[in-house]
Fold DUF6457 domain-containing protein.
Amino acid sequence: MVGTDSAPEAQQPDPQPGGAPLVRWVEDLAAALDLEADVPLHELLDVTREVAHGVTRVAGPITTYLVGQAVARGMSAEEAIASVRRVLEEH
């Protein structure tokens, strides 16, 4: 399911960041790529924003791609995002 995670609702005022169009896009794209649509939207959008503001805008989407590569190799999305934040703090 797109956008679900274990963080408390109080920390997530918008249960579907980007609304229904983003959810439909992720579901359609995941299906076209023969992938599960289990995407941590909040976490990815947050870390992408942090990198874009902390490094340079174009680093945001590249970071998201690298997180995906790490997940494809077996790292959890949470671990990959935590690694991004560690590197960002050191940068």
